[in-house]
Amino acid sequence: MNSPVKLSAKVYFLIALSITISISQFYYYKKSQERQSLLNQFFIVSSRIRNETAALKSQVLLSYFDKNIRNVPLLFQENLKTIEFAKNLINKYDIIPDKKSEFLKIMNELYDVNAFGFELYLSSDNEDKKNILEVVNYLSKNYESLNLLTMELIEYTDTIAKKYERANLLFSFASVILIISILSFVIVPQIAELEKLNQELNASNLLRESIQDSSPNGIFFVNNELKVQLLNEKAKEIIKLLSNKQITEGEDLSNIFLEKDLRALFFKNIEESKEKKFSHDYISINTPNPYHFKILFYAVKNSIGNLRGTTIIFSDITTEVISQQRLKRSENYFRTLIDKSHGIIFSLDHLLSIKYVSPAIEYYSKYQVNKILGRPFVELINNNEKEKILSYLIDKINLEKMDNSITFSIKGLSNDIVLLANCGVIENEETNLKELILVCMDITEQIEAEKRLKEQNKKLREIAWIQSHVVRKPVANALGLIQLLQQSNDLQKNSTEFQLNEKELYELLKKELWNLDEIIRQINEKTKEI
């Protein structure tokens, strides 16, 4: 993975080096041309000064013999102007940087000598041979100075030419080394890399073709002109099911799908994939054995981002659709069972808020379902049982308590309801959080029946106690009194100490019978209460 990055760094470095060498070579070439141009210009100016000096010298000598001096002043003036031009040229440009001051000194001397000679010539009489010869000597000295200056210019020009020639040779040698480096470090590795990529591409193409042929999905490609390319056998089978036509490569997509809606579906998704890079749709084939397909549309672009076409993939989702339909029917079936159930079913989230409650809650508690959805479940519980049910539900979520059922009561709008609940824990597939399902049965009537039964048992025990203890006393007393009455005559005859009044015995018997009657009445009242 790092090889392309290193290779790119080498390429950038060599390109930067090549640009630097080219700019440097161009700069030195430009400077050498400018320097050469200045040297040529100065050489021309110095040659003109030398030629004008030679012409002036000859005119001065001629005027000495033929007395004609008309051309001499003009030549002096021209010579002075040329020297002045040469001085300005030396000041403005560093023609010979090392000898600029020396050249200026020579030019100043030339200017002064010529100016002095011009004044001396103008002040001299034609008969004054001495002054004329002195002017000629001055001009000869100027000519010698100019010759020396010209020789130095020629020597300096040769030096500069050799210097720039060496620089050009150096840059040329650097360019050769750079070309060799590019060949060695860039071109040859790139060729090897391209060869490797070509092999990988061929392998990738073979792999793609094998995948297309072995893929359970139908795959084909349409170019920008909507011509079919690169389709596998599965795609041919599916398209034949859709259009009842045998598809071939190069065929126009609009000629394959003659049905208007089907053609519009494909064209719409192809256009959407160009904008979004991806699009999908679903299609079903209504036959005795129905088929369902998910169709994926992928926009294909080349390396520079230009659209090449669209890859279309048919994915057979018949099994999934049938499974979903069955699942939907099962859900509807169980939903009907839950909605029609006499029991109350609660679904609580991980915060113990009510997510779902069956419609039976309205029958038992008069609460409307939409009024309690989202509310905390414990708000429905009686205050004295909130802590118990909250602890139970938390233990269920944490799987710390596995009791199967719990009894609690909720506050109804008209009366309290006693519920027997069974709790189950499920995990939400989307949030991975635990939720609770409470299946509750109304046992209010059973609880009340149990209370009534307990009260009846209590009263029956009281009646039994009365029958076994309270009734026994007056009955025993009455039986004893009756026995005394039967034996009263014998007792009166045989015993003088123990004599009973028969009337008193009847009074006592009557009293005990009244007590017995009262006890029987109490028993009857308690029996009525039962």
TrEMBL record:
This is PAS domain S-box-containing protein. CDD domains: PAS. Residues 330-400 form the PAS domain. PROSITE patterns: PAS. PANTHER family: BIOFILM ARCHITECTURE MAINTENANCE PROTEIN MBAA, DIGUANYLATE CYCLASE DGCP. It holds the Pfam family PAS_9. Keywords: Membrane, Transmembrane, Transmembrane helix. InterPro entries: Biofilm_reg_signaling, PAS, PAS-like_dom_sf. The chain crosses the membrane at residues 12-29, 169-192. SUPFAM superfamilies: PYP-like sensor domain (PAS domain). Coiled coil: none annotated.
